[in-house]
Amino acid sequence: MKVKRFTASDMTQALREVRKALGPDAVILSTGRLPGGGVEITAAVDPTLARGQLPTSDPPANQTADQAPAEGVGDLAELTRQVRDLGQMVARHLVLSEAAQDFAGRPEVAPLFHHLRQQEVAPALIAELLDDLAGPGGGNLLGRLAIRLKKMLNVYPGPGPGQVRPLVWALVGPTGVGKTTTVAKLAASHALKHRLRVGMITLDTFRIAAAEQLMVYGRIMDLETKVAANGEEYARAVAELAETDLILVDTVGRSPHDQGNLEELRAILAAVPETVCHLVLACPTRDADLRATLESFGRFRPQSLIFTKLDETSSYGVILNQVVHSGWPVSYLACGQRVPDDLETATREGLARRLMPPRGEPQVVA
Ligand SMILES: Nc1nc2c(ncn2[C@@H]2O[C@H](COP(=O)(O)OP(=O)(O)OP(=O)(O)O)[C@@H](O)[C@H]2O)c(=O)[nH]1
Ligand SMILES: [Mg+2]
């Protein structure tokens, strides 16, 4: 843990210094006003949790998937997580109240500050987005904010040219986030719109009727669909679908705190080394829970994030927060239950638009 003290003329400047020195995952330990004017922040960062270097939760080299961790180790990890979440919550509160004072004194950016706060964008990112936004010449604040948002957001470029076919995409994620529905949407859009040969495999033999759920989609779309219960069957199913362009793999939903079952799923997917995992997350999920999910599912080395259930919320800040925190790009957005209509390919423009104030809101011109 690296702890440092920063002083500056105002809170925004101090936060900028914190971010520059310690990165976006810095936790604010204390803030205060200096007697002679100006502010001070004491901040800390845990280098093992730095942005874009999410722990993969891989078991130690000498620990196999079926070996349970020593008694008490899981409890300690959970306690550490809770203390960290609590620290982040307090820090968020402190930064927000301090930043609110700063931005409230600047009427040209105050409405944008409140809008981004409503969107639940992380305080440190709000400070970065609004810092010096007005600039000396004033000008189009909204335009500049949109540009900054697009720069921060990162989208999946898709498979590179010349990628060996078939592509094998597995959707992993917590329970009930929409993995199976999204597999069906992706299958429909790639088979019907892009005219690719698509096959599907479900590894979900855990839940009653889960495999049947995908088989039904397969029958409706006339796509070959297979069920696999272990690594060997998975490898065989992929081999049998060798004539396709894209194989979509549905997986069983697992809690991010269920390390044993996650490891079991990882071992099954490892039977086909060319498997590319995409992590499915429901947008109406608390930021801290998403963070824990990203850390836990880091073991799958996902190449992209898919956000679902955007239709069930009007706050999209968690998408920006997680993209910046993890360094992983967004590939698709699911905005409803209809297969295949409610799926869109993520673009920087589309994501930034969702985070911007709606058109009807008063324009902020410096
Ligand atoms: N509103 C909304 N509902 C969705 C969306 N995607 C999926 N759902 C619904 O969410 C519920 C769960 O979807 P599934 O596709 O079965 O989720 P899953 O992740 O496969 O669930 P498990 O296999 O049990 O882990 C269903 O009622 C879906 O219709 C979405 O984008 N918006
Ligand atoms: Mg499912």
Give your account of this protein's structure.
With 366 residues, the chain is an alpha/beta fold. The protein has 2 domains: 2-48 and 80-152, no CATH class; 167-346, Rossmann fold, CATH 3.40.50. It is 41% helix and 17% strand. The protein contains 12 helices and 11 strands. The chain has helices at residues 11-22, 73-104, 110-118, 123-130, 141-152, 179-193, 210-221, 231-240, 259-269, 287-296, 317-326, 348-355, and strands at 2-8, 27-33, 39-45, 167-172, 198-202, 225-227, 246-250, 275-282, 304-308, 330-334, 343-345. Helix 6 packs parallel to helix 7 and helix 10 (287-296) runs parallel beside helix 11. Magnesium ion (MG) binds next to helix 6.
Name the bound molecules. guanosine-5'-triphosphate, magnesium ion
**Secondary-structure arrangement, i.e. CATH architecture of the largest domain:** 3-Layer(aba) Sandwich
Strand residues, percent? 15-25%
Mean pLDDT metric = 85
**Low-pLDDT windows of residues:** 49-71, 362-366
The biggest sheet amounts to:
8 strands, mixed
Our measurement of the CA-to-CA distance between the termini, rounded to an integer number of angstroms, reads 41 Å
Shape: elongated
Q: Supply the CATH superfamily name of the largest domain.
A: P-loop containing nucleotide triphosphate hydrolases
Q: What topology, given as strand order, has the largest sheet?
A: 6-5-7-4-8-9-10-11
CATH class annotation of the largest domain? Alpha Beta
Q: Please tell me the total number of domains.
A: 2
Strand elements, count: 11
Structural class: alpha/beta
- The number of helices is 12
